[in-house]
Each structure stands twice: as C-alpha cells, then as structure tokens.
Specification:
Helices cover 51% and strands 12% of the residues. It is an alpha/beta fold. An eight-stranded mixed β-sheet has the order 13-12-11-14-15-16-17-18, sandwiched between helices. Strands 1-2-3-4-5-7-10 form a seven-stranded mixed β-sheet, with helices on both faces. Helix 4 crosses helix 5 (151-158). It is globular. It catalyses: a (3S)-3-hydroxyacyl-CoA + NAD(+) = a 3-oxoacyl-CoA + NADH + H(+). Residues 317-495 form the 3-hydroxyacyl-CoA dehydrogenase NAD binding domain. It is an enzyme of class 4 (lyase).
Length: 714
C-alpha cells in the first residue's frame, strides 16, 4: 500500500502500475470535499516519492466515478473574502496540476458519472478510458458558475475551443460516444473491460509505444488556434450564448470570456485567469441562489425518501376523467412504468385522453427519444374503460374531473364504493379544500390531494395535500407514486388554493391593481419577463384561461376575504364578461394566431385597451421598480403566511413549490430567498411603503419580528 486515506487509496499492481482509487467512506458517491482534495495531494506526493511506480491508473469503487465538488461546502467557502476565496481556488488547482505533472504516464478509468470536479480530475490525467455506461460533463453553469479546477483550461486544449464552449456553456452530461467523437476521452470499452484497458494503455505509454509527454504538453501550452480564428470563434460564441442564456445568467458568457483571455497563455497563467473569473461568478447572487435551489432540491428528495419507507407499493393506478388532464396523467404514469386505467363516462372523453397520450408519445418518437416498440409498450400500460370493472386491482386513484364541488363529491363517493378498503383515493383539484371533498367519503383517512400542473408531462411539481383526517401512510404512498412518475412532490396542508394557487392569486391581485391605476398591461408583462418570469401576468392569464382564473379567484376570495376579495371591477372581469378567454378561444388580453409550427402566437390587440378603459385610470408609465414591487410584495407576503400558517413545513418546500409549480425565476432562488437577498427589514420597509394599497401589502407580525431580530429564512 503506497497510500491509504478516508477517500483515496494507492496500491501497487503488477509491473509497477499504481492504482489510485477513489472510495469516499461513509458516502454513497465520490465527491471532492476538503478531505478528498487533501488526500489527492498527499496520494500524489506518495506516488512521486515511490521509485517503484512506472504508471498510474485512476479508478473508483463506487458506481459513479466522481459526481463533482461537495456543494454543501460551497456556502461557507464562497462566503470567504474574495482574496481568501481566490487563494483556496488556486490551492485546489495546485492539487490537480501536481497530479498532472507526475513523472509517469497516467490514465483515468471512467466507470460511471464524472461531472464537474470529477471530470476535471479525468482531464488532469494523460489519457482517459470510458465505460459505455458512463457519462461526463461540466454542469457548473447550472449553479451560476463555470469550472474552477482547471476545466476551462484543459478542455479547451484537449477538444478545441468550439467544443469546449459548447460543453461548458450547455452544462450537459455527455455519453461515451459523444465524448470519444470530440476527443474528450481516448477510448470507450464495455464496463467489464475498463480496468484492463486502462492498465494496457498506461503500460503502452510507459513502454514508449505512446508518447504521453507530447499529449500532456498540449494541455500545458496555449490553445492551438490562430489569433484571427480565435477571435472569430470566441466573439461569435459570446453573441450566440448571450442570446440563449439571457441577462440573468452571466456564467456561460463569462466562461467564454475567460477562455478567450487564457487561450494564448500557458497552463499556470491560464489557471489563474480561470480562478479569477470563477471567484467573480461565485460572488454573484445568481450563484448563491442557484446553489441554494440545488440544496433545497436535495432536501426535498431526502424528505421524499423518508416518506417512501412508509409507503405501500403502487402496482396499478387509475385516473377518473380522461380529457387533456387525465390523458396527461395517464401518459406520465404509463411512460414511467406504472400501469394505469383511464375511466370516463363517455367514449368522447376516452378518445380525447388517449389522443393526448398518443400525441405526447409520437413527439418522443419523432425526437428519437423513444422507439416505436417502447411507444407500444407505454400505450399498452394505459387501459381505457367506461366501467369500474378492474378497479379492485387499483392501489391509487386520481380523480381529475371538472373543478366543481358537487361533481367531485359524486364521483369520489361513487369511486370509493368500487375500490378495496386499503386503496387510496386522490383528487387533482387545484383550489377546492381537501377537507370539503372528504365529506363525501367513508374513509377520509385514505384520501388526499394530488395536484398536477398543466401540462402534466412538462411541469415537475405535484402538490400532495394533507386533509385533517388523511393518514401518514396515505401521504407516504402518494409521495412515492408521484416520485415513480418522475415528479417532485411537495407535501402541503389543506387550505384554499393550497400553496401554489394561494400565492399566485395575490400576484394577480397586484396586476389587477396596477391596471386599475393606469398601468399598460404590455409594460407590466415586459417588466416581469425581464425580472425573470417565463411570461408576464397578462400573457399568463391568457395561457391559463381567463375563465379558469376568474373561477379560482372566486374560490380564493371566499377563502381569504380579508385580503383577496376585491372591492373594484377589474380588467380580468371585463375580459371574462366579453368571452375573451385567452388562448382557448384565441382572444384575451392578446390575440392568438397560429404560427408555422401550428402553435398559438401572441399578437397585440389594440381593442383590448378600449374594452378595459371603463375600469382603468388614464394610461401612464410606471417606474420599473414600482411595477416589480406591486407585483412581488403580495406574492412574497402570501408565501410568508403559508409558512407561518404551517401550510408548508419549511422555507425550502415553499420556494421549490414556486420554482417547480409556477416558474418563479430560478436565478432568484424563490420568494423567501428573494426576501432574504433584499434583507428582511428592507422588504418590510418596502411593503410598508405600499401598505395603503390594502391588506395584500401589509407585512405579518411574524415577519416584522424576524426583521427586528435580524433573522433570515435560510
């Protein structure tokens, strides 16, 4: 044994080949934390000191190679003063360069996922052999960063500037064939041949059959591209990537600028340039928020895992009510492997649901994400029916009929009589109280909400809503089923609108108030889209459906009359009265025409202004900051109330619900992180500035106390 630590061991194999093996104790995956970095430095020095070593193969004992740096350590590390952080990054880089400079050939055997720092480790070796089952990539841009352990330097010299820009700015995980094609790895073999192939390669290099020093030298020198071609490659990439990433995600463009700066430099100078750019990105609020979002996501997964231990298996599901929503639910369940019965009261509904599922599957086949055989298998897992014939075999039923209490009561009561006593009944209601719906049932403990978002196949969130009588086993089983469907479940307690719709309607309330006071809905849309929302509030209302919005607003007003009941007629009311329902009938705040791809295209309709003029003040320009404040304060305060009322258990649950459910701008991290970033006291002061607009703008006592005590949500 040449070296033995908690994360790394180095043993001498036959013919002087040292095996440096990653196996982080106490963890299911390998990652670069402080321990691993320290041990890599020590292990490299031990190899250098041994005269017996003629070559090194790098391996992993885990199913993955290395998933990257330990993100849980980022928050503390990135909080360091800029100079200290720069020192830490350069010290970490010295560990990789020290390994790269070993006086013997090195080969990394990539057995599984090698991402971020894990792939940067691979790049620091002379050769890379990859299993057909493995994936490699540099996904740091998804956290508002770019590679900081030499990744921009080494990759641009190994695969060329164009390929490096694509890999780093896209942040994708790349399969073995793609990695081999661009030269990111030197060989691809089947998993069982991996170690043997890596040892063979290092022996050939050691015997002089392969010139590893020439290969290594390429990474130590400038990028091999004439200056004029360099300038054209980098400048054109900056324009293209800036257009794709948008102004709120600076890391991809900054990565290109950094690569351009260090393209003409040797390794050590280039790494200093990379480190400086990395530190600049690490200090941005975008990186802080995206890292926080990642950690929140991990917390959600941990909670779901705990629920799964108490869950009953779901081998057969059912959906009541076909149509677009039912078809979407059936597709998602079947596609992810859980057979599902799709019941409706008439054939037309069945046909609509099946057509929805078929349409989604055909798209997957057209995009080569699925073959025809798998499409057939998926469709076979959807059983359409007009009767309850096979419902005794069902474990979980999702009711997805019209959003009407009487209809839902009747359907739920009827269904309960057709299923086993231990089967679970859920409702895909978006606004109606679960406690109210459970009044129709004999077994309310076996009932909860399972609120999907439209379109089901695209929206990651499922709200699992606990009623007063819902059992823990019911919640656990539905959480487990949602996960099996590929969704992110958030468990919330019952109230009108639950979490997502409860906080969305105060946002729409802010919009209604702005229009009443003379704001131009187009200006509001543009401001909120620049703020980071995928679409502004007028456009969103059109997409959701004005009639759906008016109905849900009524439910929310009944539930929270003190702040959600309006005392004025709004522009939305006028839209509804004039049967302008949005995209569903091609006329709402905007007109909708069909584009070349057959999708609705938004077009300005001047008649909208004439229509809403009687309920709006004379049109005037509002300052951007005022529009943002009047839109965001009501939403953020309602999220605070949901946390204070125990509708959600944690700030992480609340923020992830908004990110996954309504497209809250991810780079802002969520409503509660948005308050934290502004400062709780500063947010309360901003709310007080607009408090005369009504209760929607009035901070809670709990938030005032937090502000006084200097507390934060995260």
């Amino acid at each position: 044994m040449i070296y033995e630590g908690q994360a790394i061991t180095v043993t001498l194999l036959d013919d002087g080949i040292a095996q440096l093996n990653f196996d982080l104790q106490g963890e299911s995956v390998n990652k670069f934390n402080q321990t691993t970095l320290k041990e890599l430095h020590e292990a490299t020095d031990a190899i250098r000191a041994s005269s017996d070593v003629k070559g090194v193969v790098v391996t992993s004992s885990k199913d993955v190679f290395i998933v990257g740096a330990d993100i849980t350590e980022f928050t503390d590390t990135f909080a360091l003063p800029e100079e200290e952080l720069m020192g830490w990054v350069l010290k970490a880089n010295a560990v990789f360069s020290n390994f790269e400079d070993l006086p013997v050939p090195t080969v990394t055997a990539i057995n599984g996922m090698a991402l971020g720092g894990g792939f940067e480790m691979c790049l620091s070796s002379d050769y890379r052999v990859m299993s057909t089952k493995a994936k490699v990539g540099l996904p740091e841009v998804k956290l508002g960063l770019f590679p900081g352990f030499g990744g921009t330097v080494r990759l641009s010299r190994v695969v060329g500037a164009d390929n490096a820009i694509e890999w780093i700015c896209m942040g994708n995980e790349n399969r073995a064939d793609a990695a081999l094609k661009v030269g990111a790895v030197d060989a691809v073999v089947e998993p069982e041949q991996l170690l043997e192939a890596a040892i063979d390669l290092v022996k050939r290099a050691g015997a002089g059959e392969l010139d590893y020093l020439v290969k290594r030298q390429e990474k130590l020198e400038a990028v091999k591209l004439p200056p004029m071609e360099q300038m054209m490659a980098f400048n054109s990439a900056i324009g293209f990537v800036a257009g794709k990433a948008g102004p709120n995600y600076p890391a991809p463009v900054e990565a290109i600028k950094v690569m351009q700066k260090h393209a003409g430099k040797k390794r050590d100078q280039a790494i200093e340039i990379e480190a400086k750019g990395f530190v600049k990105m690490a200090k941005t609020s975008v990186a802080g928020n995206l890292i926080g979002l990642f950690l929140n996501d991990q917390a959600l997964k941990k909670t779901a895992k705990a629920y799964e231990k108490k869950a009953k298996p779901v081998k057969q599901a059912a959906v009541l009510g076909a149509g677009i929503m039912g078809g979407g639910i059936a597709y998602q369940s079947a596609y992810k492997g859980t057979p599902i019965i799709m019941k409706d009261i008439n054939q037309a509904g069945i046909d609509l649901g099946l057509n929805e599922a078929k349409k989604l599957l055909v798209k997957r086949v057209e995009r080569k994400k699925m073959d025809a055989a798998k499409m057939g298998d998926t469709l076979n897992r959807i059983v359409p029916t007009l009767s309850y014939g096979d419902f005794k075999e069902v474990d979980v039923i999702v009711e997805a009929v019209v959003e009407n209490v009487k209809v839902k009561h009747a359907v739920l009561a009827e269904a309960e009589k057709q299923i086993r006593d231990d089967a679970i009944l859920t409702s895909n209601t978006s606004t109606i109280s679960i406690n109210t719906l459970s009044e129709a049932l004999d077994r309310p403990e076996k009932f909860c909400g399972m609120h999907f978002f439209n379109p089901v196949h695209m929206m990651p969130l499922v709200e699992v809503i606990r009623g007063e009588k819902t059992s823990e086993e019911t919640i656990a089983t539905v959480v487990s089923y949602a996960k099996a469907m590929g969704k992110t479940p958030v468990v919330v307690n019952d109230c009108p609108g639950f979490l997502v719709n409860r906080v969305l309607f105060p946002y729409f309330g802010g919009f209604a108030g702005l229009l009443r006071d003379g704001a131009d809905f187009q200006q509001v849309d543009k401001v909120m889209e620049r703020f980071g929302w995928p679409m502004g509030p007028a456009y969103l209302m059109d997409v959701v459906g004005i009639d759906t919005g008016v109905h849900a607003e009524g439910v929310m007003a009944d539930g929270f009359p003190d702040r959600m009941k309006r005392d004025f007629k709004s522009a939305v009311d006028v839209m509804f009265e004039n049967n302008r329902l949005g995209q569903k009938n091609n006329l709402g705040f905007y007109k909708y025409e069909t584009d070349k791809r057959g999708k609705p295209k938004k077009v300005v309709d001047e008649s909208t202004y004439e229509l809403i003029a009687p309920v709006c003040a004379d049109r005037r320009d509002f300052e951007t900051d005022e529009i943002i404040a009047r839109m965001m304060i009501p939403m953020c305060l309602e999220v605070v109330r949901c946390l204070e009322d125990g509708i959600v258990q944690t700030a992480a649950d609340a923020d992830m619900g908004l990110i996954f459910g309504i497209g809250f701008p991810p780079f802002r991290g969520g409503a509660l992180r948005y308050i934290d970033e502004m400062g709780v006291a500063e947010f309360v002061a901003l709310a007080d500035k607009y408090a005369d607009l009504g209760p929607l703008y009035q901070a809670t006592e709990g938030l005032r106390k937090m502000a006084a005590e200097g507390k934060t949500f995260f």
